[in-house]
Design a protein that fits this description.
Elements lengths: L1 H12 L17 H11 L11 H10 L1 E4 L5 H16 L8 E4 L13 E5 L5 H4 L5 H11 L3 E11 L10 E4 L7 E2 L4 E7 L10 E3 L11 E2 L13 E2 L4 H4 L3 E3 L6 E4 L5 E3 L8 E10 L3 E2 L8 H13 L7 H8 L1 E4 L6
Antiparallel strand pairs: 1-12, 2-3, 3-4, 4-14, 4-16, 5-13, 6-15, 7-12, 7-14, 8-11, 8-13, 9-10
Length: about 325
């Protein structure tokens, strides 16, 4: 019945006069065919008024989308100053995970040592990023209206010590997440300062989000690898050569799919490369059991680290129950 009504509307739109005077809602394409093809075509994003057709198509084909100047310089300054105060010990936030670059593990904590802060939900100042309406409006294009902030980080890439430990191996973020579906998860990653090939911008393999989650392990790097920096096992050189460099300005934000293969290079400058990010998921998503899967190794590692910190986790998903925070809509499953 609905299809019949649409055909009737289309006949009315194209009726009256010769072909040169006809109205074509989608150029020269058949109205009904265009609607149906769009439903089949867009499987990695949802119908929305925020993304243009070109933006949706780009994300569908590549698995990522950069939106320029999305986050204000004023907000970035606030987050940067907060990071500095945390590194300098001026502010202490209980439970906030401060991670050190392996090359500086024996040094006093400062901006040169801390390469990542996780669990930003414990700090109201930094977690403000995850609630920004301008970010969530784009996130909703991928997750739908009920949004959970699941994994939150401020990433600092200090000048490399010469060991190349500031690299991040090519990986898929879904490796870390025990919830599905993958198509209802998206990362928002905002450059806090210009990111370039020289200071270790993100690299991604366009279209790799159409593949599957593969086995990850620690890479065998001579200079050592930072904790939790798992990489894809047996990455083929032919695949690596497809990578593209995502150079961005301060405030630019890239949204990307959790199966997209990506990583970052070493920081070969004397400055820093900071970014703030959040992985979001539809609250309708459901937890899965990762035992017996390629994700079992990361689950065991997280549980052991939590135990050393005095937190007993019965199951890997317990870690995500603690982290997940509702930021828009209603909480359903996660």
């Amino acid at each position: 019945m609905a299809e019949y009504r649409m055909k009737t509307v289309f006949r009315h739109l194209n009726s009256g006069g010769n072909g040169s005077n006809r109205i074509h809602a989608f150029g020269q394409n058949n109205f009904l065919t265009e609607i149906l093809s769009q439903k089949q075509q867009f499987i990695y994003s949802l119908p929305n008024a925020k993304l243009t057709a070109e933006q949706r198509q780009f994300y569908e084909e590549n698995g990522f989308l950069i939106v320029q100047n999305l986050v204000s310089k004023e907000n970035l300054q606030i987050y940067g100053e907060r990071f500095q105060d945390l590194c300098d010990g001026k502010i202490k936030v209980p439970g906030l995970t401060m991670m050190r670059d392996i090359s500086y593990k024996d040094h006093y904590t400062n901006e040169h040592v801390v390469n990542k802060i996780q669990d930003l939900f414990l700090d109201e100042v930094l977690f403000d990023y995850c609630r920004l309406p301008e970010v969530l409006d784009y996130v909703e294009c991928f997750t739908g209206p009920n949004i959970m902030a699941m994994h939150t980080m401020l990433i600092n890439k200090p000048p490399d010590s010469g060991t190349l430990s500031s690299r991040h191996p090519l990986h898929q973020d879904l490796h870390y997440f025990p919830f599905r579906p993958a198509n209802k998860i998206v990362c928002a990653w905002t450059a806090m300062e210009p990111v370039t090939r020289e200071n270790g911008c993100l690299v991604a393999i366009p279209g790799s989000h159409k593949g599957k989650l593969v086995q990850h392990d620690y890479p065998d790097w001579e200079g050592g690898v930072n904790k939790m920096y798992h990489g894809i096992r047996g990455m083929k050189k032919s695949e690596m050569e497809k990578r593209t460099y995502l150079e961005m300005g301060a405030g630019d934000t890239v949204f990307f799919h959790p199966i997209l293969i990506h990583g970052s290079g070493a920081n070969r400058t004397n400055g820093f490369r900071k970014a703030i990010s959040c992985h979001y998921a539809a609250s309708e998503s459901e937890y899965i059991d990762v035992r017996g899967t390629s994700q079992e190794n990361i689950a065991e590692e997280v549980i052991q680290i939590a135990k050393k910190l005095g937190v007993e986790l019965r199951d890997y998903k317990d870690a995500w129950h603690l982290r997940g925070q509702l930021v828009r809509g209603k909480q359903v499953n996660l």
